[in-house]
Amino acid sequence: MAPTADHATGPGRLAFAIGILLAFNAIAIALVLAVGLPAPPWVFAAWFVGDVVAGLIALGLTERW
User: Fold this and answer.
1) Distance from the Cα of residue 56 to its chain's centroid
2) Tally of CB atoms within 10 A around 4
3) What's residue 14's pLDDT?
4) pLDDT score, position 52
5) Tally: H helices and E strands in the chain
6) CA 65/CA 40 separation, integer angstroms
7) What are the pLDDT digits (tens) for 9-61?
8) Taking a C-beta distance cutoff of 8 angstroms, is the pair 21, 54 a contact?
9) Torsion angle of the four alpha carbons 21, 25, 26, 30, in this order, in degrees rounded to the nearest 10
């Protein structure tokens, strides 16, 4: 398969996807620390659901058509 212009933006899209995951997890860790340890179960549930959503967004950014 011949490279296209879309593949040229691949590394930039990958870096953006990794940035999304890192930013979300940094915010989630800050939330856990702000609530205090041990954190209530809803904090971890929100972290899990948010990680799934952020992961799907990152996957969508890195998916090749």
Assistant:
1) 8
2) 10
3) 83
4) 93
5) 3, 0
6) 41
7) 567 888 888 898 999 999 889 888 888 888 888 888 988 999 999 989 888 88
8) yes
9) 160
CA-to-CA dists, residue 61 to 26, 34, 49, 56, angstroms = 20, 31, 19, 9
The residues, ordered by sequence, that sit 6+ positions from 57 with a Cβ below 8 Å of its Cβ are 17, 20
DSSP 6: H
Token reading at 52: 């799934």
Closest CA to 17 of 59, 47, 53, 51: 59
Residue 43 tokens, joined:
């904090």
